[in-house]
Amino acid sequence: MDSSDNEVTVDFSPLLRVYKNGHVERMFGSPIVPPSPEDPITGVTSKDINISPEIKARIYLPNLTNTANQKLPILVYYHGGGFCLESAFSFLDHRYLNLIVSEANVIAVSVEYRLAPEHPLPVAYEDSWTALQWVGSHVGDKPEFEKEPWLVNHGNFEKVLIGGDSAGGNIVHNLALRSGSESLNGGIKILSSILCFPYFLTSSDFKEDSLPSRIWEFVNPSAEDGVDDRRINPFVEKAQSLSGLGCSNILVCVAEKDELRNIGIKYVEAVKKSEWKGEIELIDVEGEDHCFQIFDPEKEKAKDLIKGMANFIKKY
User: Fold this and answer.
1) For 171-199, how does the pLDDT look when each residue is reduced to its tens digit (9 = 90+)?
2) Is 258 a catalytic residue?
3) Strand pairing category for 45-50 and 8-11
4) pTM of the full structure
């Protein structure tokens, strides 16, 4: 083998490296863990499912205390990781989803969308939309479609939510916009969207050589305007109007030490100024950093944030 194959062509240490031979070394992240028949801490049960030949997911069911026929809200969740790291099957996300599902009493479908650079954007957006459409396909009688029993037996399709952290929050924004102009299977509507520490950028807020900007151009090499691409910068002229967001309620979470905080607040203000007719809320956590509640959920502020998200879900 040519020794030059071991040459590093892209270096985002300590996150990720790409070698000349095409090998992608992901240095950041947590190990893959299996689903839990019954999580010992939360009582949540999970299993892995196939949405399509390319897309998988982990579905979570809380401990059903009232009745076997209990109908629960459905949260379609998209993990973070800059579109190139982490997994719906990772330890951190598995632990986090167990806590959310238990606290909010929802069914969650955590989507394993395909990652860049092997699958550059817009693949993650398309996979995420396909997963949402798959949820809608459970409504009505489709004999050729193999339905997921947990959704059929326990899902309330009038309360479908989408949520995500970081890159997942960006996906949620883009899906909410798309659902405002395109119909979803089964006639479902997105009731609420949850954007935690959303990955948004603008050329005025982030220098071209900043790590968030470099990662965006790495995962989306076909971006028309770099960090002013409409999918990462919701404020540019080319972006679809925020008034077209296809959901009724939005929660945005930010944290004081997160470099994405100000742009998250800017997003909330822009939505309020648009002609969007829904309700938007902001949770701003003092003294914490990006996605802190995933890395250390035992912190009191992490518990408070998860409880705040759960209260938002239960509110509508």
Assistant:
1) 999 999 999 999 999 999 999 999 999 99
2) yes
3) unpaired
4) 0.97
